[in-house]
Amino acid sequence: MRHAADGPVLVDFWAQWCPPRHMIAPVLDQIAAERPITVVKLNSDENPTVARDYQVMSLPTLMLFVDGKPVAT
């Protein structure tokens, strides 16, 4: 996964059928507005190979990338 951003990138792996995504979406939007971080929302149903490549086992999953590498899940 490549995303041009200055600073850390928080990827939200989600799916339409996942109810908790409705609860965390406003929090992620607030974090993005208040912090020097880019938040990217990735629909795992539409991008199953990306979710597989990063070993996402449940949804939602949040993964923090720094310099293009995952550093926390």
Write up this protein.
It is a single chain. This protein has 73 residues and is α+β, with helices and mostly antiparallel strands. Helix content is 29%, strand content 30%. It has helices at residues 20-34, 48-53; strands at 9-14, 38-43, 61-66, 69-72. The mean pLDDT is 91. Keywords: Disulfide bond, Electron transport, Redox-active center, Transport.
Helix content: 25-40%
Question: How much is the radius of gyration in Å?
Answer: 12 Å
Low-confidence region ranges: none
Largest sheet properties: 4 strands, mixed
N/C terminus separation: 15 Å
What is the number of E strands? 4
Taken from the alpha-carbon principal axes, the silhouette is globular
Mean pLDDT: 91
Category by helix and strand content: alpha+beta
Which band does the percent of strand residues land in? 25-35%
Task: Please give the order of strands in the largest beta sheet.
Answer: 2-1-3-4
The helix/strand order is EHEHEE
Number of helices: 2
Protein name: Thioredoxin domain-containing protein
Domain Thioredoxin: 1-73
Pfam families: Thioredoxin
Keywords: Disulfide bond, Electron transport, Redox-active center, Transport
Structure, briefly:
With 73 residues, the protein is an alpha+beta fold. It is 29% helix and 30% strand.
Characteristic key phrases:
single chain; four-stranded mixed beta sheet; 73 residues; globular
